[in-house]
Design brief:
Shape: globular
Distance between the termini: 29 Å
CATH class: Alpha Beta
Strand content: 15-25%
CATH architecture: 3-Layer(aba) Sandwich
Largest sheet: 5 strands, antiparallel
CATH superfamily: P-loop containing nucleotide triphosphate hydrolases
CATH topology: Rossmann fold
Helix content: 25-40%
């Protein structure tokens, strides 16, 4: 489904990162672990098409990023990728339901997979361990753990092909982390989707079938 080829990224302050080649198929759960500053978030941004390629290429369902304009990459990301941001990027003045619905706002293909928006949102939050009573309250009234689940529901809405997750458990304690990961893995569809998560926490590796350690790669 997705393959990276010879990716390198040069930062403005002179640091250069050479990324290992990645190939991921539908149903695969990939964890990229490593210390802060090793390039994990940069790699996700490149895969999402949010960061311009400098060297190398990415192919996603035979589409080459190097041949796509920024506008096409934005549309491709909206149609095919669900992103769980480290900073969540939830809108504080919107309700839980309204925040989740943003996941398909800019994608007709993902909208077409949702027959009943309210029912699908309810299904997602229930599968992620949230109660339906929270749907109409402002997002900033929720705990961090609840907000993480809302961010995951937004990314999963409309069944995008690839879920990208940037340190989604960084603000959670051990028990909440385990519960959150279990719920996400049970909610995503292995027959259609894949997930790439980056984290500095190597203890979450058992939730994934493939692990790439950036610490060893960059040693």
């Amino acid at each position: 489904m997705l393959k990276t080829i010879g990716l390198e990224y040069h930062y403005q302050y002179g640091k250069k990162i050479e990324f290992p080649e990645i190939q991921i198929e539908r149903g695969q759960r990939l964890l990229i672990s490593g210390f802060s500053g090793c390039g994990k978030t940069t790699l996700l941004s490149l895969i999402a098409g949010a960061l311009k390629l400098q060297h190398g290429d990415i192919t996603f369902d035979n589409q080459e990023y190097s041949k796509m304009s920024s506008l096409l990459l934005d549309k491709f990301r909206a149609d095919h990728i669900g992103y769980i941001f480290q900073t969540l990027n939830l809108i504080p003045f919107l309700s839980v339901s309204e925040n989740i619905a943003l996941g398909i706002r800019f994608s007709k293909p993902r909208k077409s997979k949702v027959i009943d928006l309210n029912q699908e949102i309810l299904r997602l939050i229930t599968s992620l361990g949230l109660e339906k009573e929270i749907l109409n309250i402002p997002i900033n009234h929720l705990s961090v753990g609840q907000q993480q689940r809302v961010a995951a529901a937004r990314a999963l809405l409309g069944r995008p092909d690839l879920i990208l997750a940037d340190e989604p458990t960084s603000a959670l304690d051990n028990d909440t982390t385990e519960k959150f990961l279990s719920e996400v893995m049970e909610t995503f569809d292995p027959s259609h989707q894949a997930i790439i998560m980056v984290s500095h926490d190597a203890s979450i590796a058992p939730y994934f079938d493939t692990v790439i350690d950036f610490n060893k790669h960059n040693a």
